[in-house]
Write a structure and sequence with these properties.
There is one protein chain. The chain is 32% helix and 27% strand. By secondary structure, it is α+β, with helices and mostly antiparallel strands. It starts with 5 loop residues before the first helix and ends in a 14-residue tail after the last strand.
Length: 639
């Protein structure tokens, strides 16, 4: 391996230190935001409901907002602002510095004497800008009249103002530290479809394009087409670089889990699993969630940490996971995307907000970057059964350990027993068949059960019986193991068990696994809609009808291609210059076809290694195909 030159090492070290410093500053900023917010409101899940509340929380954060500033963020359409909105405001409204204050006073003190007479100050503050009352100005002059001379020493006044501001912020932080109830509060993040949350105008490098602006763009191009639109062939290329490093996660993707906060909330939990099919497709459990009443909720998903035999790989713990939350409206087919688990804490992804009463669907998702077919050398096939001195068959220690892990995975409710429903998910995955009530009754006669549910020992005995039926031939046992993601070394390499936790403040939620299948069109639509809603939009250069929507989180990047034209479009993607990342396709050069007036996930989803700065570099080339000929136009060269 080539050594790294000294100057490159120094630069890398400086960059690393800079990122750490930036991360620390961001942590302090959000701690101060939280302290100020909870000085006025009971919970960071509670919204700001009035201009007065907004002014108070800004003051607690060391700001001194004018009425103009308040009106900027609280318009006639605003009904509430959430914690995330408040943080965004604080990022835009920086606290005044001493130099800025002195400069403002200097405009009044034209003689540069260093002081202003009280009479002059009264006249200015009661007639200009946000007019103050006589009593309010008197309060200021009493506190700031340091030598009782009837003059305001504005240099000393600025020092008093800044120290008072810092004391106010410190008092808020102290309250947060002393009061355990406040310290355990969660950051608020509202549902994206909430009618209460009004987005704060925060500038973006590449803002999302509205339908209206898209329409103008498409019709505002003065270039005349060379042929009728029904037979037009268009070409365009665009080179886009996205950089995501270890410390580049924004506030919007940061999830801090503090269990004590929700210890009085109602909890429900279910396990599940992603399974990798032979063709590379990923299937998983799907869930139905019922909320009897409106409630604040916290929904999380993470890989399930199950005990493995010593020395065995636990590769699934690094698999990225997500949940898409969809609201059922009248029928299962009519599902509306509510949100998805974009907040992150280590390997856990979560969502916090408020959900109304009703039925929701939870669709697990993984990019597949860390769960895909990988060819590895297996030193030898593990032994599953052996015969004791009496010639009786028994399960090996290694196989028993694997079966215990499997039991842990398929015991969805975690009660240490397998119900018929849970066992049938296992049967469907391993044999494609279901066990009916009659067959379950036979199991009850032959294997240990409690409350009509199969115990761990009963599950072991069931597999031992299968080995005996084949006279020790492990063929059927290996079929079961391979279908559950195990390799011949008894390592789980093509599956990822996960656990979903739901906490509801006002009611007991009910969650149930209802199927084990591929995500299908529902999940595809949810992924596309989430990227369009949350991501940044960019028109492909030279092709105004093709929009590339890109969503970036701490370690994940997904893109959706929107084709607004009347013709089919083929997008050629070249990602050969990308570094420190994985993609779900396993290819760096490929093409995707997008039907007319539709959108689809175009780029593969990417996983950025958190320990190293990484980037995605994509050359995009579109070829629009006409309806009448079906022939593609010529390619453009990509740089």
């Amino acid at each position: 391996m080539a050594s790294i030159p000294g100057n490159q090492k120094a630069t890398h070290s400086e960059n690393s230190q800079g990122k750490k410093s930036q991360h620390a500053e961001e942590a302090i900023f959000y701690m101060n935001c939280r302290a100020a917010y909870l000085s006025v409101l009971k919970s960071s899940l509670e919204n700001i409901k009035s201009k007065e509340q907004l002014s108070l929380v800004l003051q607690q954060a060391g700001r001194n907002p004018s009425q103009k500033t308040i009106n900027k963020y609280w318009t006639s359409q605003t009904t509430s602002l959430n914690f995330d909105d408040f943080c965004a405001i604080l990022k835009k409204e920086k606290p005044a510095t001493k130099n800025e204050l002195l400069e403002a006073f200097g405009k009044i003190d034209t003689d540069k004497a260093g002081y202003i007479f009280h009479d002059e100050l009264y006249k200015i503050l009661t007639t200009r800008g946000d007019k103050m009352t006589w009593e309010e100005v008197t309060t200021i002059t009493k506190q700031a009249d340091f030598n009782c001379s009837g003059k305001l020493d504005y240099n000393k006044f600025c020092e008093l103002y800044l120290s008072t501001r810092e004391q106010c912020c410190k008092a808020a932080r102290d309250r947060l530290e002393v009061d355990p109830r406040l310290r355990q509060q969660q950051f608020g993040n509202q549902t994206e479809n909430s009618s209460e949350g009004i987005p704060v105008p925060v500038s973006k490098a590449s803002p999302r394009i509205s339908r209206k602006s898209d329409h103008k763009l498409a019709n505002g191009d003065s270039r005349a087409p060379s042929r009728p639109s029904s037979a037009q062939s268009g070409k365009a290329s665009s080179s886009t670089t996205v950089t995501v490093g270890a410390s580049s996660s924004s506030r919007n993707t940061k999830l801090i889990i503090e269990p004590d906060t929700m210890k009085e909330w109602q909890h429900v939990q279910s396990k599940g699993c992603f399974y990798l099919e032979e063709d590379g497709e990923i299937i998983s459990h799907k869930y139905r969630l019922h909320l009897p009443q409106r409630s604040a909720v916290c929904i999380t998903i993470k890989p399930l940490n199950i005990p493995q035999a010593e020395g065995k790989s636990c590769s699934w713990l690094s698999v990225d996971t997500a949940l898409f939350i969809l609201k059922e409206n009248e029928t299962q087919e009519n599902l509306q995307l509510v949100s998805f688990t974009e907040l992150q804490h280590k390997e856990m992804f979560g969502w916090r907000g408020e959900l109304g009463s009703g039925v929701y669907w939870l669709l697990p998702f993984t990019t597949g970057c860390r769960l895909r077919k990988v060819k590895t050398q297996i030193p030898g096939e593990a032994k599953l059964v052996w015969r004791d001195e009496d010639g009786e068959l028994a399960l090996t220690k290694e196989f028993r350990a694997a079966l215990l892990d499997i039991f842990e995975t398929i015991d969805l409710d975690g009660n240490g027993l397998l119900s018929l429903e849970e066992y049938n998910f296992f049967e469907l995955r391993t044999s494609g068949e279901k066990c009916d009530q009659e067959a379950w009754a036979v199991c009850k006669e032959n294997f240990e059960m409690k409350k009509n549910e199969l115990t761990r020992q009963g599950f072991m005995d069931l597999n031992l019986m299968e080995a005996n039926d084949r006279d020790g031939d492990p063929w059927d046992l290996w079929v079961t193991l391979l279908s559950l993601g195990y390799n011949k070394a008894l390592e789980m390499t093509e599956a990822c068990p996960f656990v979903i936790d739901i906490c509801a403040e006002r009611c007991k939620a009910r969650m149930k696994a209802v199927s084990l299948e591929a995500g299908g069109s529902q999940l595809s639509r949810a992924v596309c809609r989430s990227v369009v809603n949350k991501g940044e939009a960019k028109v492909l250069d030279g092709s105004e009808n093709i929009i590339i929507h890109t969503y970036k989180s701490g370690s994940r990047i997904s893109s959706v291609i929107e084709n607004k034209s009347e013709n089919k479009v083929i997008i050629h993607v070249n990602n050969e210059k990308s570094k420190n990342c994985l993609n779900s396709r396993g290819l760096t050069v490929f093409a995707v076809e997008v039907a007319p007036k539709s959108m689809m996930q175009g780029h593969p989803s990417y996983f950025i290694f958190p320990s190293f700065p990484g980037w995605i570099h994509s050359n995009l080339l579109s070829t629009e195909q006409s309806h009448d000929t079906g022939k593609a136009g010529p390619y453009l060269n990509c740089c």
